[in-house]
Structure formats: C-alpha cells, structure tokens
Amino acid sequence: MRNIELTRRRFLQAMGLGALGLALPSPKPVEARLGAIGPDTPLGRILNYRLFAHSEPNLRSPSVGFYKYDDIIRLPNIFYTEHTKGKKIGWYQLGENSYIQSAWVQPVFNRPNAVADEIPEGGCLGEITMGKTPVYHANGTLNINRTFYYENTFWVLAKHVDEFGVPYYELLDDLSGNSWYVRASAVRLVTPEELSPLSPDVAPDAKRVELNLRDFTMRAYEYDRLVFETLVTIGLEAGSTPIGVWETNRKRPCRRMINEPTDTLDYDLPGVPWVNYITIRGVAFHGAYWHANWGEKMSNGCINMKPMDAKWLYRWTTPVVPFEKYYEVADKGTRVDVISGY
User: Fold this and answer.
1) Burial letters 137-150, b for 16+ CB under 10 A, else e
2) pTM (two decimals)
C-alpha cells in the first residue's frame, strides 16, 4: 500500500487545519460565535465572498458587518419575510440587530466518523460529513486549490496511512482520473441500505417527474398521485433548462462538474451529489452545495436541489444504480415533464 508522505512540519500544519471549521471567523461587528459544539449542533458555511449582515431582516437596511467565504458560524433557526412580489426570503438572526440572508449559507454539521478497516475492492461511495475539510496531494502537501464540503459525495478508492499513523481516504477525481486525499474521519462510507430504491413496487412507467419552470418546483407522482415536491433552481438563460419530455436514463451518485469559460457562469465543482441526467448534453437534477437560493434562476441549465432532496429523487427514479457502481446507463428511465407553467 502506498503511504502518504507527510513531514512533521506538514503534519502539524495539517493538524491545525484539521479542526475542520471549528475556528472562529475573523473578528467582525457581528455576533455568531461557535462556542461549544457537538455533532448535532447546526452550523452554517458562508457561500459569498462577502456576505453582509444587516441591522434588520431587509436587504435595504444598513449593513453592520460581513462574513467571508467559507466562514463557519453557529446557525440559529431560519425564519422568513415576504418580498414585495410575494416571494419569501429566508433569514438567520446572528445577534441583536444582525441578520444574514439564508440564500448564501449552507447548513452543515461537523460529524467525524470511525475509519473503515479497509475499502472494498473497486471502491465505494463516501460522503463528506464536516462543514469543510482540506484536500491533499499524494505526497502529503495541501492542495491549495481545493476544499471539500459537507454533503459532497466521492468514490472512495483506497485507505492510506501516513508515517504518523493518520488515516486518509483516496478519492477519485471522476473527470481527470486522478486522485485526491482527505482525512478519513471526514468521510462517511455510504451503506447499501440508504441507497435502496424507493417505491420499488410501483411500476416504472407509473412514476413521473414534473418540473414547473414558473414556480421553480419539482413534483414526483406515482399513478398521478403527488408523493414529493420541493423548490429547485433552474437555468439562468431562457431555454437552458429545456422544456419537453425527457427521462432519467443516466445516473451517478457523484460527479465533478466543470465548464469552459463563458460569459455566464464559470465553475469547477467536485463532489456534486446524486446526479440524474435528462439530456445528452448533461442537463441534470443534482444536489447543490454552493448556494441555498431555492426558487430562483441560478444555473447553466441543470436543476439544483437540496442534497437530501436530490438523494430522494436519485433513489426513487429508474434505472437503479447498483451499489458497487458509480455510473449507470439504461435504455429507459423515469419520465420527466419540463413545463413552462404559463
């Protein structure tokens, strides 16, 4: 087995970063101190490079400070105000006269895991369970261009142990074929039970997904009976989320998604979870960890969902992806009706 090589200096550096988001954000005139936390303490990761806190739950109210991208804060309960056009806006109150908009906060937890004795031959699926976790190269150096986040999913190839006895998992970069390395305790290995198909007794042709582009809502039906609905985000440009009848005949539990520079959105997003493709050019339902701005136009065409909602859809649609595989293609899949809603 190939070991990750870490010098003592790098090891101590890694230990400092290995707090995985427990450090307090840099001082700002807002209050959201972490204090003592446990695995069930609700936390939030800031998704804007500068997210302003306001004196009132109103974007027009004065700014009282800001948080930076990737700051981790203790997360209070969400509440909603109504926009002048009837749209609800989510807010978190971080202190007296200090509010931030929920659209740019990822709800997370810090939940370290027991490390597996070994990884199955051929690999298995893993999910990041920490608010953020540093990424390493094979030689033990930090990958300064990468941080992985809560609810990212990756195909775990192997377990390695460095010279200090610290275990790491090797994760597949499923776009380049290369590998990334993270602390094994930051990854939960997914079990077969949690990927078991939902409603397997329902005939495949009795299942149908409807995506309404007017109200930004995905609805799932069994025999025309509504069984699930949720707010989503859709493509920014007209036609980027295509209207028509499609099907989910290609699926994978994880994917690094990247595009070439364009005039609209540039992105490189590893660990995108629970991908249901509906077009040959790659439009898909999938989980999103880079925003929480549900009910808006945000993407290059894909349908962004809360990761847990995307996981539900992944399990409910056909074809079923075998547990030991990370990609499945079939002749047929669950029907998807994308409608304008007008």
Assistant:
1) bbebeeeeebbbbb
2) 0.89
Q: Which CATH class is domain 195-339?
A: mainly beta
**Among positive and negative, which fits the CA dihedral 92, 101, 270, 72?**
negative
Window from 14-18, 67-71, 93-97, 271-275 with minimum mean pLDDT: 14-18
255-313 confidence digits (pLDDT tens): 999 986 555 567 899 999 999 999 999 999 999 999 999 999 999 999 999 999 999 99
- CA atoms of 74 and 31, how far apart (whole Å): 10
Span 100-131, pLDDT tens digits: 999 999 999 999 999 999 999 999 999 999 99
Fold (CATH) for 43-108: SH3 type barrels. (2.30.30)
Tell which residue, 160, 135, 172, has the closest CA to residue 327.
172
Start-to-end CA distance of the chain, whole Å, equals: 59
Quick one: tokens of 231?
């707010």
Residue 145 in tokens: 């261009």
Identify the pLDDT of residue 20: 36
* Spatial distance between the Cα atoms of 294 and 277, rounded to a whole number of angstroms: 20
148 vs 57, 106, 167, 239, CA distance in Å? 30, 13, 17, 31
Domains 43-108 and 195-339 share a fold: no
- Residue 159: how many CA atoms within 13 Å on its side-chain side? 21
Q: Where are the domains of the chain?
A: 8-18+112-190, 43-108, 195-339
Q: Is 49 helix (H, G, I), strand (E, B) or coil?
A: coil
Q: Over 17-44, what HEC string results?
A: HCCCCCCCCCCCCCCCCCCCCCCCCCEE
Q: pLDDT for 311-340, tens place per residue? A: 999 999 999 999 999 999 999 999 999 999
DSSP string, 276-293: EE-STT--EEEE-SS---
Dihedral of alpha carbons 20, 22, 28, 31, sign: positive
